[in-house]
Amino acid sequence: MGKSDDTFVYLATYPNEAAARDDYRVVKDLHAGGLVGSYDAAVVTKDASGKVHENKDETATRHGAWGGIAAGAVLGLIFPPAILASAAVGGVVGSVSGHLAKGISRSKVKELGEFIDPGQAGLVVVGELRVKEAIEKAVTRAEKETAAELGVEPADIDRALQEAAKQM
Fold first, then answer.
1. Which of 4, 20, 123, 132 has its CB 3.0 to 4.6 Å from that of 14, i.e. a possible disulfide?
2. What is the DSSP letter of 147?
3. What percent of the chain stands above pLDDT 70?
4. Contact, 66 vs 38, CB < 8 A?
């Protein structure tokens, strides 16, 4: 079991993007109510050909110190660039993905990458381990869900973001 200040990734699948967005709003409400600290989240879809598309409309409403980078970094980690439809693995995101990869096994990365089937939508949440249980209880529309500890502290993610930004 990780420490309460470790970071986790939560991944849930949905029959469509609207259901994933509904649970995304639940996560935002948890944050607004003070139940969720630093986190980042993204709604993704996987098309019939297996390409993963990150929902760009939610970027402005993401919360936490990570400003949309942590979810993109996790997407870059669990979905190979060949199946990501966006350039989510470029620059800062790619650097942070590499940092996150140190804390999770290759087999778990592969499992997460295969979790969303073609034609489904997904909700990806990256946050502090102590909020994982609150999110798992509040997210109710998911067909299936999984979570993994990333073995890195949120402060380490912040440092990786700052270092990557300096190199830009």
1. 20
2. E
3. 67
4. yes
